[in-house]
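Hi R.,

Here are the chain sequences for the assembly we discussed:
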Amino acid sequence: QQQVKQSPQSLIVQKGGISIINCAYENTAFDYFPWYQQFPGKGPALLIAIRPDVSEKKEGRFTISFNKSAKQFSLHIMDSQPGDSATYFCAASYPGANNLFFGTGTRLTVIP
Amino acid sequence: GAVVSQHPSRVICKSGTSVKIECRSLDFQATTMFWYRQFPKQSLMLMATSNEGSKATYEQGVEKDKFLINHASLTLSTLTVTSAHPEDSSFYICSASVSGGEWETQYFGPGTRLLVL
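And here is the predicted structure of the full complex:
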């Protein structure tokens, strides 16, 4: 079964707007939540990651918000740019798991 | 830092032939390497996990005799698709895991597009 649920499947945002992608999980053992960005024909690139001991992490225009009680985390892209158009995957992992459990991906299109 | 390369970037082969894909961690030693498969517009599907010098651990439903993985060193893992068929056509992506620091982070290669005719 899908251990990490991601929404929306696709998202269209105006240039300068805020893009928000949401993920939810059930396994409370998860303690590492990275976001990956993937351009067509390329491998995913690590964008930003968070642990559940903080509620927010910001790196430039990218922010992860984490709600431990709700078992949800989200990626916010501020001042979205056409160059941000890509597919974004959330993921989760737990100690000893070694591998990542990926969400289904969100295709973001930022229109000029 | 933390660059992972894959070779070739794309390959076309005839049905029945075998294809080898290389995954290298260029500037670090990877404790673990992973192989994923990705269909168009879909998420990554983990195929197997490999540690240097030991046998790979395959995910349920992945044929180990069809997808041979060799992890010869801390910087090189290879995936061989044996007797390839058109249904094996896909985008294959490797990743390498780096221990230390805050987390064990996975860094992905650029992927290899395989087309079997």
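Chain A has a mean pLDDT of 93. The longest strand of chain A covers residues 19-25.

Let me know if anything looks off.

Best,
T.
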